[in-house]
Amino acid sequence: MSNYKQMNKTKSGFRQVLMLAGMLLTFGWAQAQAPRELTLKEALNFALQANRDARTARLDVENAQYQIDEVRSRALPQINGSASLTHNPLLQQSALPNIFGANPNPNETILIAFGQKWNANAGVSLSQALFDKSVFTGLKAAKTTQEFYRVNAQLTEENVIESVATAYYQLLVQRQQVGVLDSTIKNTRRVQDVLTGLFESGLAKKIDVDRIKVNLSNLTSQRQQLLNGVTLMENQLKFLIGMPIQTPITIPDVARDAIQPQAVAVNDAVNLDTRTELQLLRRQEELLGYQKEAYKSEYYPSLSLGGNYSYQGISNKMPVFKGKEKGANWFDVAAVSLNLRIPIFNGGATKARLKQADVSIRKLQEDINNTGLALNLAHENAKTQINNSLITLNTQRENVDLAEEVYANTQNNYNNGLASLTDLLNAETSLTEANNNYSQALLNYRVAEIQLIKSRGQLKSLLN
């Protein structure tokens, strides 16, 4: 009996453990599936950390330091060790006149082998550059390369910010259009309920009930299409910021009245020196200058100090681990040298490379001038687009107010039998179109605003 009670108690405890585990798993799943609210600032900061292009640009900056270390190594001592063991089964013979021995005969040629069959050698060599202009030029070029990659990383981040901000606003407007359609569907269903009641009372026609039903079905289908578009835009945004596609996100609503568009003064100017595009081209110009200087260094002599030391052993038997008593002779050799290399003539190759470098610099200067013109053009276009978008926004806002007033009056007239169902549906469609047009105008303004901020070199202000 006691065993039976103990078994029941054990089963009960096991059941409680399973229930607790199930609750924890359910809670964890719910937490994992909870949508992450993503503001523009959060999306931009996430992108700068996770976006593939931004990460790659930072790796280039890190790699530039290693390039500097590589060039610097050329100015440091170069030390190498070596060892060899050579066996000569057949020694090289030399032809000599027979002037040796007891009966010399100079007219006779004899063959004599010189050397030992085994030769062991172990040594170390050192080389130190005392003067090499190409080394110092390369070191300065490497430091400029590091600055080039740093500016390039900054430009990459700005491009990421521009792409993410544009995609974010497109998604936000698409969500607002869904909200507009939801409001329209809600109003349509209210009219449908009223019309159905009137039809059941014999005060409305069946064709009117069918028409409102068809209209509601079309609106529902249109809403589903918008939702599909929202999903695609969410996936695109997550891809741009480097977030896993499976991560659910939600974009907080922004009241349309919270956006306060501002006009831009016609005489608003921009300081091109702050633009990253020009800074990057100027770093590239410096690099081309160092490349030209490196070519010039080919005309300069180079001076280096060299030294080597080796310990050798020779014998007719393998000399390793053997001394003189076993027929192995060991001796050391050392040398110190001062080496001067003076270039005299290379067929004009250096002169040709200098001319090519000069052409590359002049081509880049043309790119810098053209980029300056393009940046000024982009700024002027952004100002024009902002001001035009402002006019469109004001017009669309007035259209929304007017469409809401027309819809309210038409609905009231329809309820009082003074307007037809067609008039009501037309007023409803006009109101939906006016709201969508206003949302699109807001998107155009936001995109123009991003371009204006970019033209001023202030894209990172969006992170604040």
Characteristics of this structure?
2 domains; elongated; transmembrane; TolC-like; 4-stranded antiparallel β-sheet; single chain; alpha+beta; 464 residues; Outer membrane efflux proteins (OEP); 8 strands; 8 helices; 63% helix
Write the layout of secondary structure elements.
Elements: H1 2-33, E1 36-37, H2 40-50, H3 52-72, E2 78-87, E3 93-98, E4 105-113, E5 118-131, H4 133-200, H5 206-241, E6 249-250, H6 276-296, E7 302-315, E8 329-341, H7 349-415, H8 421-455
Parallel strand pairs: 1-6
Antiparallel strand pairs: 2-5, 3-4, 5-7, 7-8
Helix pairs in contact: 2-4, 3-4, 4-5, 4-6, 4-8, 6-7, 7-8
User: How many domains comprise the coordinates?
Assistant: 2
Helix-strand topology string: HEHHEEEEHHEHEEHH
Unreliable runs: 1-11, 17-31
Global morphology: elongated
CATH homologous superfamily (4th level) name of the largest domain: Outer membrane efflux proteins (OEP)
- Arrangement of strands in the largest sheet: 2-5-7-8
Radius of gyration: 42 Å
Provide the β-strand percentage band.
Answer: 15-25%
What is the CATH C-level name of the largest domain?
Answer: Mainly Alpha
